[in-house]
Amino acid sequence: xxxxxxxxxxxxxxxxxxxxxxxxxxxxxxxxxxxxxxxxxxxxxxxxxxxxxxxxxxxxxxxxxxxxxxxxxxxxxxxxxxxxxxxxxxxxxxxxxxxxxxxxxxxxxxxxxxxxxxxxxxxxxxxxxxxxxxxxxxxxxxxxxxxxxxxxxxxxxxxxx
Amino acid sequence: xxxxxxxxxxxxxxxxxxxxxxxxxxxxxxxxxxxxxxxxxxxxxxxxxxxxxxxxxxxxxxxxxxxxxxxxxxxxxxxxxxxxxxxxxxxxxxxxxxxxxxxxxxxxxxxxxxxxxxxxxxxxxxxxxxxxxxxxxxxxxxxxxxxxxxxxxxxxxxxxxxxxxxxxxxxxxxxxxxxxxxxxxxxxxxxxxxxxxxx
Lengths: 161, 199
What we know:
The complex is a heterodimer of chains A (161) and B (199). Chain A has helices spanning 2-17, 32-36, 49-57, 66-70, 76-80, 87-97, 103-115, 120-133. By secondary structure, chain A is mostly helical. Chain B folds into two domains: 1-67, no CATH class; 75-192, Rossmann fold (3-Layer(aba) Sandwich), CATH 3.40.50. The longest helix of chain B is centred in the first third of the chain and has 15 residues, at 23-37. The mean pLDDT of chain B is 95.
């Protein structure tokens, strides 16, 4: 059963990224992606190759892999990879497939879905408790330069989905 | 300053930044902006590195020319700029971060444009090793400690004024700086051109 689930999940990742399973067969296991990864600077050891290997082998990816939590989308891995594999996009697709979005990501997409843009007062309203609880409010004095109030403008997006 | 006329894309929508796992959805969002712009101009300029990157990638058939503004500040342009002040005796750390320089397909062509400008005006540059490191800005509302650690590392290895050209880098470095100054490159341009009193 686990096998069927992982295959289904992996297929979904290929669908979301546009990669095919065989695209990861070229990974030589050189681990240059691991050596340049920004997450190393957080004193967390990561090896992005683990994820590519699981997808190639049709195995379930490890949901607890630290990259699913800490990848910064910096593309250091992609630039260093001899094949230019876009690992951040693979990670984002796995996160989406496994429903690993955080509150902020859900609200961001919610705003884009409703208004077509990021409407800051909406984001603030939806994440206010989280921002207060997690200690973000103390940064507010430094953010005054970015703040202004405006009414929402709903824009039309005619994408395929 | 550049002599171009800027027109907003009518009814522009968010490019989705890096928030979507579905690449087609992400490309569609920027594709929609390109569709909205097609009757106005084929030259698209987007000042956020994530927006310009997504637009460049969405412009598969190269119908448009998509730029980040930093690409317009070519050495020819900068050398032709009317200069009112020099930068002698001042130290700057040009900081590019991630998306301006990566991935290669959408990177800006000149990864030393800020250094060239500062040194031409007699200023000194520092921080070569951290210019392309990540500030962790995209983790800011997910794992704040991670952004703080990455941004502090950049700040601590910088010297003088940190020059940036990304709103997310500006916000992350400003949030976690102590006395260090974080300045947009365009503000430095206005300063040397005499259109701004202070850096």
